[in-house]
Amino acid sequence: MTDYKFDDELNISLVRGIERGYSDYAEVRMKKRDELLVSAAYAWVKGNHIEDQVAREVQNKGLGFKKEKAGYTWEYLSFNDPKKKSLLLIKNADIIKGKKSTPVLDAKTSDNYLVELSKINGDIDFGKITGSEQGSLKLFDFPEYRSIDNINIKDYNLFYILTYSIDPETKILSAIDLWMPEYKSGSQVEMAKVDSLTKYLGNTGADINLGAIEELVNVPEEEFSGTQEEFGYKVVDKEAEEEA
């Protein structure tokens, strides 16, 4: 498992970028909520702020980044290590701990871009990635996230997803985890936790506007996270579906 982890310096830079990006988002979000008569759409720019700050943090730490486009309108950054031929995406996710089964990315269509990218890890011995906490990974899966025209999976040997969780009550970053998706038969993708970066939260030296983040508590949940019906996405939770 150690072979697939990042070094401490890169981990700190990744977490610092997420912290700064989220703080920057909180400042802009609250400012626009005061200035505009309607500002709920700002629920969807959190990732842009976080990816922007992460890119600024890691550009001198061995990671490059590239602007990608999914569908017609959505842009995001992919990060890569040319030496290890690895690809990294950053996602907002909630980890439900204490489950017995392996975390699963439950994509409904085989052409989902995360399903396709998981094939990069086809030569990984996932039996060596052990000791991770069990849980259920919930990803915000936009229907337009289907196109990976700008990413050639043959260019990479490793594919990671770095997830950050936000406490629903305090709106403070609560966890950051590094995952490797494993493509299974039937277009099922299991998630193996490679490392937890949560220990770096609050220890990166990042200047955080806690006041702005605390103000997010006053934003109604449907405005903070957006609504499924309005934007046409679903929260994927394999375990919840099985229990229903």
Q: In a nutshell, what does this entry contain?
A:
The protein is of the alpha+beta class and 244 residues long. It is 28% helix and 27% strand. It has one domain (2-243).
Q: What report would you give on this structure?
A:
The protein is of the alpha+beta class. Helix 1 packs antiparallel against helix 2. A hairpin with a 6-residue loop joins strand 6 (158-166) and strand 7. It has one domain. The two termini are 34 Å apart. The chain is globular. It has helices at 8-35, 46-58, 113-118, 210-215, 221-225, 228-231, 238-243, and strands at residues 64-70, 74-81, 86-97, 104-105, 135-141, 158-166, 173-183, 189-196, 234-235. The longest helix has 28 residues, at 8-35. Strands 1, 2, 3, 4, 5, 6, 7, 8 and 9 form a nine-stranded mixed beta sheet that branches.
